[in-house]
Structures are given as structure tokens and as C-alpha cells.
Amino acid sequence: MDTMRDRFISTASRLLDEEPRLAVVLADISADGFAPAARAHPDRVINVGIREQLLVGAGAGMALAGMRPVVHTFASFLVERPFEQVKLDFGHQGVGGVLVSAGGSYDWPAGGFTHMAPGDVALLDTLDGWTVHVPGHPDEAETLLRDAVAGEGRVYVRLSLQANREARPVSATGGFMPVREGRLGTVVAVGPMLDGVLAATEGLDLTVLYTTTVRPFDAAGVRRAAGVTNAADVVIVEPYLAGTSAAAAGEALVDLPHRVLGLGVGRAELRRYGTMGEHLRAHGLDPAGLRERITGFLRL
Known about the structure:
The chain has helices at about 5-20, 35-40, 50-65, 75-80, 85-90, 120-125, 140-150, 195-200, 220-225, 245-250, 275-280, 285-300, and strands at about 20-25, 45, 70-75, 95-100, 130-135, 155-160, 175-180, 185-190, 205-210, 215, 230-240, 260-265. It is an alpha/beta fold. It is globular, with a radius of gyration of 19 Å. InterPro entries: PDH/Transketolase, THDP-binding, Transketo_C/PFOR_II, Transketolase-like_Pyr-bd.
């Protein structure tokens, strides 16, 4: 299976042939993959080098000129480093574009903390009007990317090396998809966390919802799931900062007695970088760690 980043490069390259408004703006990352597209469309595949503030500003400038920019680099350099440009050049100026990140929270541990971005979605959550997609499979990434390019809004597509074994039906309109139904609580699995959540909840009387779109948050979907359980207890398992969507779930259930547990990447910096699998275990996001915390919270 190809990776989400591989699929992004191949899909965006094809879209450049099909969509004359589309432009791809790079900061060295994935430049080799886009080399054939750059030769075919030298005026619409722009590599600004390792200048991330310029990367975002150039993309927003293209949007002001009527183009549909796809702006790409690692998450830490796409959201965190040039956050002021994301906030002002896209948000304040009221233009649309597609930010596509790679690297996830810790896809390349050897790169160190500079290349880790567990706080990217929480940071974007401070801004208005962003749609946030977190695909769990390359097929889902392609569908969400195509929808994002065809639209006009501000969209963040978060890619990762973490992936589920199989793709699920997804759409740009989002919504939480029931994968299992149970009576003792609800677990929401975001993107690449689904396989681990399914393994962790095997044999438990729980509803499992799957989503690749976390913003806007599907409040109605959480309420529907709470309505078929005996308690409005919700666990949200996200592949980035723990608790990022806990407030949104709480707001969805504000008029119901409820409890919400947000599971994800912890705040503490893990300085022995290790492997991606070791990071999952260290943050309790492997099936064993998830099962222990889910059953403890739901008193199963």
C-alpha cells in the first residue's frame, strides 16, 4: 500500500493537469515527488525553499489572485512555524486554500521535536472557518483532497504514515460513521486510530464511531450515539494532542448528564525518540493502552 503522502503527490499531480486554477506551493518537502509536475507546470508548482512563512504567504497571494493553492510541508512547519501567516494571510484576508501536512505527530521520531506536531489541530482550532480532515487511509486522503481542491474554503488535510488496514467511505461533509453499536458508552476514533480502537474495544458493549473530519465537529452524531447508550459517556481517541476535541464533545452534550475523556498524544516531550510504534505505546495509544484507559473510564 502506498502512503498518504505518496497518494497526495500522485493525486495533486493529476489534478494539476485537470484544474487550471490549481497551484502547488512547496518548501522543499516532497519537491522530488513533484518534479515531473513541476516540469509540466512550471508556473503552478512553486518551491520557495525552507521559508515557511513565505510558503503560506505565497499560497494566500495566489488565492487572492483567483487561484486554488495547495500548500504543503511537514505539519510543524505548515501550522506551527508560520501560524501568523495562516491566521492573517488566509483567515484575516478571507481567502481559501488547502494546507496539506505530512509527518503527523511523530512519524519521523529521528527528526526530533522540531519535526513533531501533536498540537497542530488544537492550534488551528483557535481560528474560525477551517475544515480539518484527518484521513486514516490513502484512499480516504485522495477523496478528501479532491473534495478540498474542488471547493473554495479553508481546509487542512493532515497526512500521516499511520494508517488503517482498509479504507472507509468518507466525504468532505464529514459526519461520524457507526462501525459498531453498543449500550455502555461511545468511543470516537479519528483517522488512523480506528484499527487500534477496534482492537482495544473487541468484545465490549460499546458504540464505535469513525470520522476523518474533526472540524466541523459532528455534534449531532455524538448526540445520536449517546441516545442509544445507557449513559452519555464519550471517549475521543485522536492521533494528536489529547483532549483537542473534548470541549466540542462537551458542548454537543451540554444539556445531558455526560462525561468525556480525550485520549491522544500527551504534553510531555519524549526525548528518547525511538520509533513511531514506541511513541504510540508511550502515549497509551496502542490497543493495550487504549483498552486499559477506556475500560477504566467507563468502569467496564
